[in-house]
Amino acid sequence: MTFSEDRPRESFQVKLDLRRQDGYLSAVSDDMPGLHVCGETAEAVRVKAADAIRALYRFNSKLDVDVAATDDPTVLRVRPRSVAPT
Questions:
Q1: I need a labelling partner for 27 at 20 to 30 A (CA). Which of 16, 33, 75, 80 fits?
Q2: What is the reported pTM?
Q3: Quick check: is 26 in a domain?
Q4: How many other C-beta atoms can be found within 10 angstroms of the C-beta atom of residue 63?
Q5: 84 and 62 in contact (C-beta within 8 Å)?
């Protein structure tokens, strides 16, 4: 999924690549261009990643998405909600 595509029709997963750096965790994802967040715990990183994914879609695609945790702490489920107002 890239921002140049039309509005996604179905939900999809974003796999986070977590790495420990200098006492904190950093996360990026090949599934979400522009995503780079950090935090002290995996849960904090996941919350920040969900917020960042919502912001990236709203800013780049004018699209509101729901982002939900999955059983895998390194995977988030993204589902389109509606077109954001311009």
A1: 80
A2: 0.82
A3: yes
A4: 19
A5: yes
